[in-house]
Amino acid sequence: MSTLTPDILSVLEKQAIELPSWAFGNSGTRFKVFATPGTPRDPFEKIADAAQVHRYTALAPSVALHIPWDKVSDYAELRKHAEDLGVALGTINSNTFQDDDYKFGALTHHDETIRRKAIDHHLECIDIMDATGSRDLKIWLAEGSNYPGQNDMRARQDRLQDSLQQIYARLTGEQRLVLEYKFFEPSFYHTDVPDWGTSYVQVAALGERAMVCLDTGHHAPGTNIEFIVMQLLRLGKLGSFDFNSRFYADDDLIVGAADPFQLFRILTEVIRGGGLNSPDVAFMLDQCHNIEDKIPGQIRSVLNVQEMTARALLVDREALDAAQTANDVLAANAILMDAFYTDVRPALAEWRESRGLAADPMAAYAASGYREQIAADRVGGTQAGWGA
Ligand code: PSV
Ligand code: MN
Ligand code: MN
């Protein structure tokens, strides 16, 4: 455990990364959805698979649900099922993008009947949060327009604010609303919440329990995401992360796979801004596994976040401050790069073993027989979601 000090390990021990239920369902592109043997047939089976990830990593104690993909008749039963498997139900994601009524908008729609329906869907999501014990309602909106002149962008911002006010007013206790932004898709000319600034403006007008959700895959190429992380932390408005990685658009690939250095830089700013293991900043994955196995895909993902967090914790802050103050450009850069280039994997494996976990969670899962078991047991049907 040479590289990781006891102080660093005690920070890592508290790390928690929420898994998305939809990562366990079949998904794909508009060209083809490839089915994986053993894919869950209902939310109960998705949670069972998520619990496997936690079992081998101790990193993923909760699972986010998506409504109506994860609609069940009894949420108390689902909650108990999760708790029996050692995990909790987490963020509730609303869905206003798969209903014909929302073709031209939902929370921004000029038709009051449709806007009411979209608001009511969110109120129903909060009812579910009451039953599941979830803290966060996450809203991602697909709305916008495709052609200049198609819509009154300004009026849509006003209606969005009014809709969010009504939803926010229904939250109780510790419950929060997190508003996600995305720069394009499925709308291509304008998107109603395209960037962190718009999300910030909308949630700041609501109140303290409304925050911004930053999905790492939702930025234009070349965007300095760690700057946005810094700014939102500085403003006290970074509510959550949706981690994933991208080469081109909203690829939803395994976090840290496309650009581990970017993940390291983001986590360095999270630590700098006091956002690591902070109750205010939820770490979540938002990924789909189109061609790889889903459970090991999620295990790999949480390990990637853990490894880059460990490297970011290795940054020698004091030395960095001194180099920055001295305007020693190359020394400051070298201090950051020294941490980034440190291979923490052997130390993490050793630490895992010392806590009674498998040194290699990927290998332990593969050897467990779970994959073969679910492939044999789960015959017929896949759960609705991105791939449906
Ligand atoms: C669509 O872009 C999206 O990937 C958003 O990132 C949401 O968080 C996710 O779907 C689930 O609704
Ligand atoms: Mn997302
Ligand atoms: Mn996305």
TrEMBL record:
This is L-rhamnose isomerase/sugar isomerase. It comes from the Bacteria. GO terms for molecular function: L-rhamnose isomerase activity; metal ion binding. It comes from Microbacterium immunditiarum. The keyword Cell membrane does not apply. The keyword Metal-binding applies. NCBIfam families: RhaI_grampos. GO terms for biological process: L-lyxose metabolic process; rhamnose catabolic process. Its EC number is 5.3.1.-, 5.3.1.14. Keywords: Isomerase, Manganese, Metal-binding.
